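Progress against Task 2.4 (sequence-to-structure conversion) is shown through the following example record, which the project officer requested during the mid-term review.
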Amino acid sequence: MATHSPVRGMSREDLLALPVAVDLDTANKALTIGRSTGYALAKQDAYPVKVLRLGNAYRVITADLHRLLGIAPEPTAGPGGQACWP
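Structure tokens generated for the chain above:
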């Protein structure tokens, strides 16, 4: 089954493959927010998820993006065939 990806957004698979924290440009892409708007929202503390400011850099926790977008990893089979969350 093919996954439809928005032109500016990211596919579910792309979102699940992100590292623990991402830069603001990646978060903007995930949320389909333009670069200027994303940075303006972060500067005003109005970004849709918590933004970490590390020196001059902005970072966003990927789990916060997943929660906002309603994305959860698929359970995998663990010992004894029971569902196990990654």
